[in-house]
Amino acid sequence: MRAKALQTLLKPGAFTLIDTHIPMQETAPLFRSLGFRTNRGPLITKVNQAIENKLGSWYDLIWVDKANFITPETTRLLRSRTALLVHFTPDCAFYSNQSQLFEKSMPYYDWFISSKSFERPNYPPEKLIEITQGYDPGVHQPVSGFGGKTRNVCFIGLFEKSRGDMVDVLLGANIQVTLGGMGWKKYTNLHHPKVEYLGEKVFGSHYAEALGSSRFGLGLLSKRFPELHTTRTFEIPACGTALITERNTDTTRFFTEEEVIFYDNLSEIPDRIIDLTNNLPALERITQNGYRKVTDGMYSYEKILREVLERIVPAG
């Protein structure tokens, strides 16, 4: 999504996309796990070989998304082939995704782009650009009108115990929940009659359809690190669904009470869902307000990246 936005904005004469997911998928699961855990082994070798094999002789800009597996040697090679080397990550870089390879490679980058304000101290301040998370209008969009929704509450994302606790609270109130994403096989209530499980891989249009067909979308934040907003914070409203999100300094900066459903503790959520389900005009108003806030605001990847490029790319 970001590659498409960059290509649209810059309109380069030549554009190379190196998809490191391809060598990742070609690596045996055991060695993928080893690479994720230790930054060593065949996964790391395959990813770096793929980059070297596809790399051209010179670029005005090289943009690297999530350099967890890129070695300092490969980063130095990238540095030698470009006037401007940029690192972007939509995730944490110094918590669950911490990579010694990336940390050792940091001196080669000109700019770091991050949406995680709590990681600010880990970056050189003169090279850091802070942004919000974003959404892709070509993917994250309503799939039906408000009256055509067939699901109640939806969460698509990695299982964490705190997220399972939220679903337990909803099930305890007899509320139907749709789930998808990795790790939910650990969840003890996965086969509850009020649970619809869409599987581990819910991406792209399938992801947007799951959100867009639901009245409520859970924008649950990770509790493994001090996350304040996530891509779901914008993707859910962009899909024409009411966002349920915890109240914090980020979410209250983006939205008002008339645009999303805030909560301070889990026990509040079932009553809010039931009340709004019994007052569909109020729910539709919140949903539409949230949709307009996101789609009229500066939250699409293209709008976010345009501002970034205006700062880092020399005029002319």
Question: What does this protein structure show overall?
Answer:
The chain has 316 residues and is α/β, with parallel strands linked by helices. It folds into 2 domains: 144 residues, no CATH class; 151 residues, Glycogen Phosphorylase B (Rossmann fold), CATH 3.40.50. It contains 13 helices and 10 strands. A 6-stranded parallel beta sheet has the order 7-6-5-8-9-10, sandwiched between helices. It has a 4-stranded parallel beta sheet with strand order 1-2-3-4, with no helix packed on it.
Quick take:
The chain is of the alpha/beta class and 316 residues long. Helix content is 39%, strand content 13%.
Give descriptors for this structure:
316 residues; alpha/beta; Rossmann fold; 6-stranded parallel β-sheet; 4-stranded parallel β-sheet; 13% strand; globular
Secondary-structure blueprint:
Elements lengths: L1 H9 L10 H5 L3 H10 L3 H13 L7 E4 L6 H9 L4 E5 L10 H6 L5 E4 L13 E3 L20 E6 L4 H12 L4 E4 L14 E3 L6 H9 L1 E5 L13 H7 L3 E5 L4 H4 L6 E3 L5 H9 L2 H17 L4 H12 L4
Parallel strand pairs: 1-2, 2-3, 3-4, 5-6, 5-8, 6-7, 8-9, 9-10
Protein structure class: alpha/beta
Number of domains: 2
Give average pLDDT, whole number: 94
* Estimated radius of gyration: 21 Å
CATH topology descriptor of the largest domain: Rossmann fold
CATH architecture of the largest domain: 3-Layer(aba) Sandwich
Q: Which term fits the overall shape? A: globular
* CATH homologous superfamily classification of the largest domain: Glycogen Phosphorylase B
- Count the DSSP helices: 13
